[in-house]
Amino acid sequence: TGYGLLAALIGGMVVSLGLSRLFMLMREAPKKNVEILIVAGLMVLMALLQVYVTWGLLPKPANLDDFGMVYTSAAGYALNDTLPGDYLLVNPTHTGTYTLLAGVFSLLAQFGMADFALPAAIINILAIDGAVLMLYFCGRRLWSARRAIFLLAVSALSVPLLLYSPIAYSYTLALPFVTG
Questions:
Q1: Do residues 38 and 95 make contact, with C-beta atoms less than 8 angstroms apart?
Q2: Interhelix angle for 145-156 vs 117-142, to 10°?
Q3: For 167, which DSSP code?
Q4: 136: part of which helix (H) or strand (E)?
Q5: For the CA atoms of the chain, what is the radius of gyration?
Q6: Are the CB atoms for 42 and 161 separated by under 8 Å?
Q7: Which residue of 74, 87, 99, 142 lies most exposed, with the fewest beta carbons within 10 A?
């Protein structure tokens, strides 16, 4: 555990140094083609980090939490045409997530797929990345391209956005709507 803390500290310092170096290199707003390359590179970096985290943390949904209840209800509808129980009546905030996942899972079940954990994670990654990209455009419009790129870099390395990647959760799937 001591080595893990040391590694996290060193990693944090390297990331901080890299972000400050990126910010210092861009004393002026970058040219349009350079800005596009930086944004595309940061988005690819974020997607690769999310895939890595998802690969290592892909959960086995259980009926113990909100994600497990919504996931198993949507998978049950896709595979067996069973409707969810009273859970969505008690927690209506998850109805949108259930509807989205049930629709996608039903489509995938038509092609013979029965394990939907990876497609759910991919949908979640796309929602998170779409929200971060919209955040970049909002920052660009409010401030400048230089500050928006810094905002994008910080968002791409945000631990909560990375750790929520494998879990198709109502909060992360709503991010594009909240951000846009």
A1: no
A2: 150
A3: S
A4: helix 117-142
A5: 19
A6: no
A7: 142
Tokens of 27: 């004393």
How far apart CA 161 and CA 24 sit, in angstroms, is 25
CA–CA gap between residue 130 and residue 179 (Å, rounded):
9
The DSSP letter of residue 28 is: S
Reading the block at residue 83, the tokens are 């409707």
CA–CA gap between residue 54 and residue 51 (Å, rounded): 5
CA–CA separation, 100 and 83 (whole Å): 14
Specify the DSSP element, H or E, that contains 34: helix 32-57
pTM of the model: 0.78
Q: Which 3 state secondary structure label does DSSP give 58?
A: coil
Note the residue count of the chain: 180
- Go through 76-110 and write b for each residue having 16 or more CB atoms within 10 A of its CB, e for each that does not: bbbeeeeebeebbeeeeebeebbebbbebbeebbe
